[in-house]
Every structure is written in structure tokens, then in C-alpha cells.
Amino acid sequence: MAIDQHGDAKLQGVSIRSLPKVSLHDHLDGALRPQTIIELAEEAGIEVPAAAADDLADWFEDQADSGSLVEYLKTFDLTIAVMQTRDGLRRVAREFVEDLAADGVIYGEVRWAPEQHLAGGLSLDEVVDAVQEGIEEGEDAAEAGGHDIRVGQLITAMRHADRSLEIAKLAIAHRGRGAVGFDIAGAEDGFPASKHREAFEYLASEFFPVTVHAGEAAGLDSIRSALIDGRALRLGHGVRIAEDLDVIEEKGDEVQVRFGSLARWVRDREIPLELSPSSNLQTGAVAAWGTKLEDHPFDLLYQLGFAVTVNVDNRTMSRTSLTRELSLLADTFEYTLDDLEAFQLNAAAAAFLTVEEREELIELIAEGFAG
Q1: Exposure pattern of 249-282 as b/e (b: 16+ CB <10 Å)?
Q2: CA–CA distance, 366 with 371 (Å, rounded to integer)
Q3: Are residues 34 and 57 in contact, defined by beta-carbon separation less than 8 angstroms?
Q4: In angstroms, rounded to a whole number, what is the distance separating the alpha carbons of residues 318 and 347?
Q5: What is the largest CA-CA distance in the chain?
């Protein structure tokens, strides 16, 4: 299957970009347009490593392709630096929604950490309001262009810091005003969800949904902590749940697998995995299985019945889109439109929406894939 320069491909005669999609794991500070970074950096007097947008895009991709989450995260120093003003945050959020709409996304959840955007003198409430303004401007622009899209904020705390309870309270304060869920992100190894148990207990008492980065830079203990201490309804990445699977025998297309207790719980409870194929390769999250997409345990998890979803993680760093991720998976594992639809239905069912809203989303996906 030929994938064009925009990451699109035709599958069974249908453009993958044209299909309705749900994006659950998409970082705002990892999704800036290179030209926007250059312009905002110039306004703020910040030096950039490349003066042309294409060259800057190359720089991000090269820097992120390190095989280490710690090195990968260093690229965010630049993007976060240009997101310290109300206007900068509004612009980035507006363009983010416009880019999602161009990607065929009809529902998205954008995660970002307000505590990282206070250097310009804004308060936590002000930065959340600025991002929400940008999101709504982007939704209006998409609607004017004939594309209906809805985007909710996942208010995120940095797991190596000590502000998680404060950020959890911020998320609740903005519930109904854009915030739909909570997350912790950043360096995973050494900073399990248990370190933020007070925040998670507070969120649970408020019946506020949580997703937790786990099973990316750390393994099964991190996933276990996300589920038990974090009370996570979804796993951010979660790809290393495959470490709890013992492949006993492979015969053709059939694989005999022995489940560990954690993997069986995640599979049987249909806890969604927010898998990000390209990013997982860049950060070394799947290094135990190999270095190429064909080595990624995505297909194994899918065939075993896990609730897999497809995500971009960071569009700028991975130079990707949801369309491209789906195109690459379809090409690598010979997926059909039915498979791609299953991934979108899994994501719709996992969205932090009401039952009625999720059912409506599922109907829109079914209609879109039916043509």
C-alpha cells in the first residue's frame, strides 16, 4: 500500500484521512506547527535550532528518535518555551484543533500540563482559560470549513513534581468548562502513580475520570500502580503490558499465549490501551521486541482481544498524524477497513464522555466507515 507524503493512503479504495477518527492521546505541547514555533520564538526572543519550518521539523524528528523517553522529552523545552503567553497558548490550541480536523478527527482529547506554562506571569486558571478559548476558536473554524469536531482537555500534572493535588483541584474547577479528565505525565521510571495517591483519591471522590501514563518507560509495576493507586480508567501507552504475556507457540496465524494476572485483568476488564506506534519506537518503549513497526506488539495485543486504540502522542516530535499512524499499521499488519473501524470504536467507547455522547460518536464512526 502506497503512503503519500502527507501520510495518507487508500485502503480498499478509501482515503484513510477521510475516515472519522477519535484521538485520545495527543499532547498539546507536542503538536505545534514548526512555523508557529519559529514565529512565537521570534516574538519572545528565543533562539531556535533551525530558521526554516521544514528544517525545524527535521530537527524535532532527529532529536526525538533517540530510543530514550528522557532524551525524547528534552525536545519539549522549546515548545513549552513559546507557550507562556495567553496569545501563544490560544494560537497553539486553535491550530491544534484545526490540524485534528484536517486529520479527520471528530472527537479529541488534548493533554497538557498547566504548571509548565506559568513563566509569563499567568495563573493556572488563566492558562487553562486561554487554551479553552483557542480550542473553541478551532472548533468554530473547523465548523465553518464543514467539519464538526469536539475537543476536551485532559488536565495533566507532572509526575516528578509535587503539585498533583493542586492540579487535580484545578481540573475539577474547570469541569464543565473544557476539562474532561486528568493525567500524570513526564519521566515515568521512578515516579509511579503511588506518589500521587492523594490527588487520585480526591479525583475519585469527585467521580472525575483519569488516564495515567504507564507501561512506556517503566514496566508492569508502573501499570499496576496506575490501576490500583491511580484508579486509571485508561492506560497512557500501556504497551509494556505485553511483558506479562508468554508466547508459548506460534503456528501460522495462530498464537498460543499464557496470560499473567495483570495482563488478564487489563484484557478482561477491557481497560483501553492508548498505543502510539511511532512514538513507542522512538522512545524505546518496545525495545524488548525490536526496533521496527513490525516488531511492535500492537498486533499481538489486538489479536488477543485487548482494547487497543491508535494515537499520535506527539505530532511534532514524531512528525506524524493519526492518518499516518493508521496507514502505517494497515500497511505493516495488512489490516482492513474493519480493523481500522474497530480501533476507532474502541477509542469512542473509551472517551471521557457520557454514555449518550459515546453512543452518538459510535454511530458517527459506523456511518463514516459504511461510506
Answers
A1: eeeeeeeeeeeeebbebbbeeebbbbbbbbbbbb
A2: 9
A3: yes
A4: 21
A5: 61
State the pLDDT at residue 254. Answer: 76
Active-site residue set: 216
CA distances from 210 to 100, 112, 239, 246 (A): 22, 14, 18, 29
Could you tell me the three cell numbers for 120? 509569563
> Over the stretch 267-285, which tens digit does the pLDDT of each residue have?
999 999 999 999 999 999 9
Listed residue (272, 297, 276) closest to 287, CA to CA: 297
- Set of cell numbers at residue 143: 465548523
The answer to whether 73 and 317 have CB atoms below 8 angstroms apart is no
pLDDT digits over 3-16, tens only? Answer: 876 788 899 999 99
Which domains are present in the chain? 19-237+337-360 (3.20.20.140)
Strands 273-275 and 308-310: parallel
**156 pairs with which residues across the strands?**
183
Q: Are 314 and 338 in contact (CB under 8 A)?
A: no
**HEC profile for the chain?**
CCCCCCCCCEECCEEHHHCCEEEEEEEHHHCCCHHHHHHHHHHHCCCCCCCCHHHHHHHHHHHHCCCCHHHHHCCHHHHHHCCCCHHHHHHHHHHHHHHHHHCCEEEEEEEECHHHCCCCCCCHHHHHHHHHHHHHHHHHHHHHCCCCCEEEEEEEEECCCCCHHHHHHHHHHCECCCEEEEEEECCCCCCCHHHHHHHHHHHHHCCCCEEEEECCCCCHHHHHHHHHCCCCCEEEECHHHHHHEEEEEEECCEEEEEECHHHHHHHHCCCCEEECHHHHHHCCCCCCCCCCHHHCCHHHHHHCCCCEEECCECHHHHCCCHHHHHHHHHHHHCCCHHHHHHHHHHHHHHCCCCHHHHHHHHHHHHHHHHC
Percent of the chain at pLDDT > 90 equals 89
pTM given for the model: 0.95
Q: What is the mean pLDDT of the chain?
A: 95
